Amino acid sequence: VQLVESGGGLVQAGGSLRLSCAASGFTFGEYMIAWFRQAPGKEREGLSCIDENGGSIHYGDSVKGRFTIARDSARNTVYLLMQHLQPEDTAVYYCASTYAPDMPGRLSSSFYTTWGQGTQVTVSS
């Protein structure tokens, strides 16, 4: 079971980035996928999650209206489109998965069993 994030980088305030989370080694269509981030000295924060068939999506309050999550089952990939980025969005971004068919989405890190290595996002002012 493996998750690999990509798409991070340096962007100016107000800009956009799209992160990708490529999954392998498990039946993608049976797993809930979520995005988290962790800034230096801060706790890991749940940003968004999407259920196994894309029918249920949740966002954290800090990113609601700015970030969009989507999944592409043909590519076994989940995306996080981040718009109107601000310096406070600077963090390492992680995707995570859990086997949770027909369960409501959660943004608690303890709910997820497999994590990617993270990708750095830096927003300059």
Written overview of the protein:
The structure is a single chain. By secondary structure, the chain is an all-beta fold. It starts with a strand and ends with a strand. The chain contains no helices and eleven strands. It is 0% helix and 50% strand. Strand 7 (67-72) and strand 8 (77-82) form a beta hairpin.
Brief overview:
This protein has 125 residues and is an all-beta fold. Helices cover 0% and strands 50% of the residues. The N and C termini lie far apart (37 Å).
Give me the secondary-structure topology.
Blueprint (H helix, E strand, L loop, with lengths): L1 E5 L2 E4 L4 E8 L6 E8 L6 E6 L6 E3 L7 E6 L4 E6 L8 E9 L14 E2 L3 E6 L1
Parallel strand pairs: 2-11
Antiparallel strand pairs: 1-3, 3-8, 4-5, 4-9, 5-6, 7-8, 9-10, 9-11
How much is the average pLDDT?
96
How many E-type strands? 11
**Oligomeric form:** single chain
N-to-C terminal Cα separation, in Å? Answer: 37 Å
Percent range for helical residues? under 10%
Shape: globular
Largest sheet: 7 strands, mixed
Count helical runs. Answer: 0
- What is the string of helix and strand elements? EEEEEEEEEEE
Indicate the low-confidence ranges by residue numbers: none
Helix-strand category? mainly beta
Strand content range: over 45%
Radius of gyration: 13 Å
